[in-house]
Design brief:
Layout lengths: L7 E6 L3 E6 L4 E6 L4 E7 L11 E7 L2 E6 L6 E4 L4 E4 L10 E7 L2 E6 L4 E6 L5 E6 L1 H4 L11 E5 L3 E5 L5 E6 L4 E6 L5 E7 L2 E6 L4 E5 L5 E4 L8 E5 L4 E6 L5 E5 L4 E5 L16 E4 L4 E4 L4 E5 L5 E5 L4 H14 L6 H4 L2 H13 L1
Antiparallel strand pairs: 1-2, 2-3, 3-4, 5-6, 6-7, 7-8, 9-10, 10-11, 11-12, 13-14, 14-15, 15-16, 17-18, 18-19, 19-20, 21-22, 22-23, 23-24, 25-26, 26-27, 27-28
Helix pairs in contact: 2-4
Length: 354
């Protein structure tokens, strides 16, 4: 079997399986629970692939997959039933567009990364609208616009965002359609997650996880974490994980911020995994899933027990993707990011021709 680098950036779950997007290439894939493997792969022809992380979040609703651009130019919609892809004809900036997306009823709110404005999308009409931006409460920071590093939806009403190096949180009230800045003195929050109507944030100043109120007050804190550069994610059963960005280490915490588990993950040494080794976390109805940089799918149940599945797709499907990626992407990747990607894809090309 040829080496496969299945590096997920974001994903969403259905009863049949998991949809996810590759972190380096504009490649949408589907893992089937029934067949226990990746059964579908669609190359998204965005017209530009010169940077990693084309998409950082996605939503599935009524058999349609919505992809929101980070280092891509368009919102893309994949129709599962007809196997067709189309884009919304609004071109966004070339990079760092959007960070997260949340659906409330038939409206999707897309949180900016460095593009400033929140985007609101009507699912039925596909009409999009740019709402107020972070500069309405921050202005400019060190001659740069403020940007969102992490965000979560709290009580289906507030988008809570961390703004690095500001000792503050930015909160967007969906009903009021307005931003509010919450000061957090001496606390540089870089990650935030909502679990059972509680807010947890990673304090980069103290390397602790804090439970905080919507007003930014600290309710309780964990001991110092083993990792100092982590993402926080919801495990779906009053528990959370701190996932080390550099090593892939997963630490599990209870809602009371007691450490209750630890998972060491493997990382495939390839430039297709980049330097970021955290897993792609997908919150399902009765479970949480993580796709690691070692091609493993970790499935956590309500008791925080997990099992792993080695991800792979049929050789013919993967080799076809390799040829498509060479043809459509390889010349657009900056030289600084090439490294062994060319050699890796040439393996796929050789396999296809034999």
């Amino acid at each position: 079997m040829q080496r496969q680098i299945i590096n997920a950036a974001c994903g969403c779950e259905t009863s049949e399986g998991i949809w996810f997007v590759h972190y380096v290439f504009s490649l949408l894939m589907f893992f089937s629970y029934k067949e226990n493997k990746i059964t579908k792969s669609i190359l998204i022809e965005d017209g530009r692939s010169d940077k990693i992380a084309p998409f950082l979040d996605m939503i599935i609703y009524e058999n349609r997959v919505y992809l929101f651009p980070n280092n891509a130019n368009y919102i893309w919609i994949y129709e599962v039933a007809s196997d067709e892809v189309h884009k919304i004809e609004h071109r966004f900036a070339d990079e760092n567009n959007f960070r997260r997306a949340f659906r409330i009823g038939k409206t999707i709110y897309v949180i900016p990364y460095k593009t400033n404005n929140i985007l609101r999308m009507d699912i039925e009409t596909e009409k999009i609208e740019l709402l107020s931006g972070l500069d309405s409460i921050y202005g400019f920071i060190n001659n740069n616009s403020p940007y969102v590093y992490s965000c979560c939806l709290y009580r289906n009403k507030y988008c809570v965002c961390t703004i690095p190096h500001t000792n503050s949180l930015a909160i967007y009230d969906i009903d009021e359609m307005a931003w509010k800045k919450i000061e957090t003195p001496n606390r540089d929050y870089v990650q935030v997650v909502e679990i059972s109507d509680k807010l947890y944030a990673f304090n980069y100043s103290s390397y602790t996880i804090d439970e905080i109120s919507i007003d930014g007050n600290v309710l309780k804190s964990s001991n110092k974490t083993v990792s100092v550069d982590v993402e926080l994610h919801n495990l779906g059963n009053d528990s959370l994980v701190a996932n080390d960005i550099r090593t892939g280490l997963i630490e599990v915490y209870s809602g009371e911020l007691e450490k209750i588990g630890r998972v060491e993950t493997s990382v495939i040494n390839s430039d297709l995994t980049t330097d970021f080794h955290q897993a792609c976390w997908i919150k399902g109805v009765n479970k949480a899933c993580a796709i690691t940089k070692g091609n493993e799918l970790l499935v956590f149940n309500r008791a925080n027990k997990y099992y792993s599945i080695q991800l792979h797709m049929d050789e013919e499907l993967w080799n076809k993707n390799g040829i498509d990626l060479i043809k459509n992407n390889i010349k657009k990747i900056p030289e600084s990011e090439m490294c062994s990607i060319e050699a890796f894809l040439s393996e796929l090309s050789s396999a296809k021709s034999t």
